[in-house]
Amino acid sequence: MKGILGKKVGMTQVFDENGTVIPVTIIEAGPCYITQKKTVEKDGYNAIQVGFGDVPAKRLTKPVNGHLKRAGAPSVKYLREFHVDNPEAFEEGQQIDVSVFRVGDKVDVTGTSKGKGFAGVVKRHHFRGGPKTHGQSDRWRASGSVGAGSTPGRVFKGLRMAGRMGNQRVTVQNVRVALVDPEKNLLGIKGAVPGGKNGLVIIRDAVKG
């Protein structure tokens, strides 16, 4: 299992050995620290808990500070879990950095998409809107009919309507690692990844790779 936490820095471009321009998202990944090991016998599943992000100890609660101190890890802002086959291969307090990845690796990147607030169906679901001519006056961006009257006499669950857009957990799958810089703790992921600048992202082995 290869996995790490990081924060999105922004987008840029790099050149490969053939001179081809590759758009990449730069992620400041790690260093992360293993803060807990979970096993089938004790917790019902195998996993490791990983911490990332410097934060003053006074910003954390006493239980969290005690948890990190017991693991021999520094104060961290984020705690996330990665499922592993053999937790005994890891040690609490162990440091993880970007050197676990290589250029060309396929990974899945999870983040929280940018929140757009309340949005209509044209922006949220890419509806085309109503006709622009022939007497139409105020229905350009309306959704149109949402169901029949007598049968079924109700609106089906899940119908695409206006509502809150964004601010959801999103994963992009099978993207390629284009840059690894262990000295600066930087990863370059080909293409775009979810979220805004400084947003938390989770990078792990591609499940479909």
Topology:
Layout: E1 3-15, E2 21-29, E3 32-38, H1 40-43, E4 47-54, H2 62-71, E5 76-83, E6 95-96, E7 106-112, E8 117-119, H3 121-125, E9 163-165, E10 169-181, E11 186-190, E12 200-205
Briefly say what this structure is.
The protein has 3 helices and 12 strands, in the order E-E-E-H-E-H-E-E-E-E-H-E-E-E-E. It has 209 residues and is mostly beta strands.
Short descriptors:
mainly beta; Elongation Factor Tu (Ef-tu), domain 3; 2 domains; 3 helices
What does the model show?
This protein folds into two domains: 3-116 and 169-205, Translation factors (Elongation Factor Tu (Ef-tu), domain 3, Beta Barrel), CATH 2.40.30; 119-165, no CATH class. It contains three helices and twelve strands; from the N terminus they run E-E-E-H-E-H-E-E-E-E-H-E-E-E-E. The radius of gyration is 23 Å and the shape is extended. By secondary structure, the chain is mainly β. The protein is 9% helix and 40% strand. The model has no long low-confidence stretch (mean pLDDT 92). The strands form three sheets. A six-stranded antiparallel barrel has the order 1-2-11-10-7-12. It has a four-stranded antiparallel beta sheet with strand order 5-4-3-6.
